[in-house]
Amino acid sequence: MRRALGILGCCLLLPPLLPPAARGSPHSLRRHPRPGGGLPGSQAAADTACKNRPLDLVFIIDSSRSVRPEEFEKVKIFLSKMIDTLDVGERATRVAVMNYASTVKVEFPLRTYFDKASMKEAISHIEPLSAGTMTGLAIQTAMDEVFTEEMGTRPATFNIPKVVIVVTDGRPQDQVQDVAASARTAGIEIYAVGVDRADLQSLRIMASEPLDEHVFYVETYGVIEKLTSKFRETFCAANVCALGTHDCEQVCVSNDRSYLCDCYEGYTLNPDKRTCSAVNMCAPDKHECDQICMRNNGSYVCDCYEGYTLNPDKKTCSAMDMCASGRHDCAQVCLSNDGSYSCECYEGYTLNPDKKTCSAVDMCAPGRHDCEQVCVRDDLFYTCDCYQGYTLNPDKKTCSRTEVCAPRTHDCEQVCVSNGGSYTCDCYEGFTLNRDETTCSRAITSSLVTTEESCKCEAIAALQESVTSRLEALSTKYILFLT
Description:
- This protein has eleven helices and 30 strands.
- By secondary structure, the protein is α+β, with helices and mostly antiparallel strands.
- The N and C termini lie far apart (135 Å).
């Protein structure tokens, strides 16, 4: 069955714990032997002589329907006693608590509390969620929402171990194997605590290797708090740095029976070899930012100029297409310009003083067109035309005078008289222009003799007839000459 399981009390089954440091994992929790190799005289003495290495520790507790209210209270007592054994603080161990059933609730993240009293007060107010047992969802939520720098997880450069303790009494109702594997790959060390009806195989699937150091089982919630001492031994260290007898301001590095002081990344050790001063990580040659370096609590983050976006490497920048839809406020034309943009207008429009909107241009205003005579606006453009008596040349701009009296270009019946770019009609001798000013009628020649003489003198009448006949003959000859 379980390899090397031991018994605590009447109901507690525990695997023996080996120091994680012996496994060679870079993120393992160290446990050093106490001075003299013996057990302390009392639990109080042990608590004062043993301090754990800083952790980012997340408790994930099952509050499904199978966990009765009085049993859930036992879990809360277990959490409080666990916190009592930890060296809690902003620069020591940070603690978060998650509560899950069919849903997951982050009761408080790593950044919220840095003292034991506040943590224990918050734990006392946790209420069970009831319903299912979505253990995989809870572990995934821990990765996505708790183990982030925004929620209080220290940067990887600080080399602070990330640890999860899962407490459950049932079988997961979702796929936990792949999620747990992803968490372990991400450097999260998982301890699985099973109670009563918990499925041992599920505990082994989710826990870190070696399993006999990471899988715990108790038969009832009544004895779960006895696990506190086993975890305390796991997280305990008994070297000079762990005892707290050093005077290092930031990092104590154990060195056999002595120690050395060191500083967090972004800090440098002062000449006194104990205290640290912040390094300007944004000084030239100290950062890898492509554009902007921003100091951040002894470290730095990169940013980009306006119009650029930070690449996934978190160091280099790429120009944004500032003319993409929704990025600019140009009314008509957006011109991208190396991370910025400028606005222009369509032909026939001019840019307003706000450098964004456009107004239509009067293309026929003086100086804006090249028409010789007449400019005609046509929506946003224009066309050229000519005065009466002129015609537009093939260049569509200049005009030439039209021969208005050329054949078939006028409507005069007899004579066309050119008048600048226009014309008037006239008639041959012996004809008069009609009222339509285009046709002609024969003229009346009775004015050659008086009325009285025409009535009294036949000679004069004969002369008049002779003159009329001669005039008609001359008119006929003239017409024939013209044709």
